């Protein structure tokens, strides 16, 4: 099925409760850990201080979150551009 077919099916079944499975409960897992090379950790610690972050972990979390948001926007734009080329 194409993405459009799936969207149309979901819209058609939106009001039909028998078409849906029971809700799934999801819980956030334990926080994960990552390891980075010592020199990179030292550079991150320095920049966290420059930015007056409360700690390197908080600063890295913010930087990673910002980068992920940028990557998601870029991915969405690239996907939209590819879809536009397919339509042309």
Span between N and C termini?
21 Å
Instruction: Characterize the largest beta sheet: strand count, sense, and whether it forms a barrel.
Output: none
C-alpha geometry? elongated
Are there runs of 5+ residues with pLDDT below 50, and where?
none
Instruction: Tell me the strand percentage band.
Output: under 5%
Radius of gyration: 21 Å
The strand count comes to 0
Class by helix and strand content? mainly alpha
Short account of what is shown:
The protein has 88 residues and is mostly helical. Helix content is 64%, strand content 0%.
Molecular structure report:
Helix 2 crosses helix 3. The chain starts with a helix and ends with a helix. It has 88 residues and is mostly helical. It contains three helices and no strands. The protein has helices at residues 3-13, 38-50, 56-87.
Layout of strands and helices, then pairs:
Layout: H1 3-13, H2 38-50, H3 56-87
Task: Write a concise keyword list for the protein shown above.
88 residues, 3 helices, single chain, mainly alpha
